[in-house]
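Incident log, support desk, overnight shift.

02:14 A customer reports that sequence design results differ from what the structure should imply. Their input is reproduced verbatim below. On-call engineer (initials T.W.) acknowledged and began investigating.
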């Protein structure tokens, strides 16, 4: 990607990479869920890691859905 701007690279990239969301690994059966902690015992689903293709069809494990943290 090429970015054409009159700004210096320092101004464009200021703050880039400083905030990294805290992700928690949650195991549900044989599946591993990567969940971004949003507080109050809940998180936002980020990624599903599973060898079972039917796990990817479950709407409750869709990226962005709310997941209760243990």
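02:41 Re-run completed on a clean worker. Output:
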């Amino acid at each position: 990607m090429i970015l054409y701007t009159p700004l210096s690279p320092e101004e464009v990239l200021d703050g880039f990479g400083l905030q990294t969301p805290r992700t928690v690994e949650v195991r549900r059966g044989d599946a591993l869920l990567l969940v971004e902690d949003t507080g109050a015992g809940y998180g936002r689903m980020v990624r599903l890691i599973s060898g079972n293709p039917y796990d990817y069809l479950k709407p409750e494990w869709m990226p962005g859905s709310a997941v209760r943290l243990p």
